[in-house]
Amino acid sequence: MRKFIKWTIRVITIIILLILICWIIFAQVGMKFRRSDADAKLEFSKENVQLLTSTQSVNGRQIHYVATGKDSLPTIIFIHGSPGSWDAFAEYLKDKELLEKFRMISIDRPGFGYSDFGESENLSTQSKLLSPLIESLLNGKPTYLVGHSLGGPMIIKLAADNPGFFNGLVILAGSMDPDLEEKESWRPILNAFPLRYLAPGAMRPSNKELWYLKKDLVDLKEDFGLIKCPVIIVHGNKDNMVPFANVDYTKKMLVNAANIQVKILEGSNHFIPWTRFNDIKQILLNLDSH
Known about the structure:
It is a single chain. This protein folds into two domains: 30 residues; 256 residues, 3-Layer(aba) Sandwich (Rossmann fold). Strand 5, helix 6 and strand 6 form a beta-alpha-beta unit. It is globular. Helix content is 42%, strand content 17%.
């Protein structure tokens, strides 16, 4: 009986170790929320849209982005949430109506996609990395920033750090109010070695930057007053990830914006870039009228 118990314990231990090893391997290679440039170009070509891809070195870091549309047109720059990558906005980049009016660029934020995957940063450092890239892409035409979720405060930071660059901001379900962020005291534990290697794929850099976020949002309070261009705030009133109350906070903080418009998407959750594509597309098509 003792031998059987020992054998059973040994077998269970081996199974647990195998499961742990398999999970660690999966965690490093899976759920990266990205696809290769070659695959993306092929997909876009099937819809007769040319996708340009590029990686630039900025302050020793690699920043990857994609672009569609004519260089002579006004520009929309998309900033994804957490986790994510440029292809969160793939459907917009290939839309024929939008392509008639805009050049569109979507960026892998630092730590995501093919921008030094895994090495995420706080909002201030991200802005220092993204700003030189964006400046190099300006073409003398109006330029608009669109940010979803964590991309919302990111575009506020970018606009504050680069006065005069942007003609308008579109905040999609933006996480703005530090008081509405949950404490999530478990995040630094998950971010510590070796536990961080148990987080799968893009969840690891996401966990790191979300741990920074509450302090980032406190620091961001000083930046709202620097925003002078028009701002459109779009939010679903059934968002259970980023509370709808962020809308009032954002309006209150944008004291110097040229004008503020709020678009409430009734019955919608946090995933409005995909579930409310047509509504958001129409907002983008009308950007030059604001």
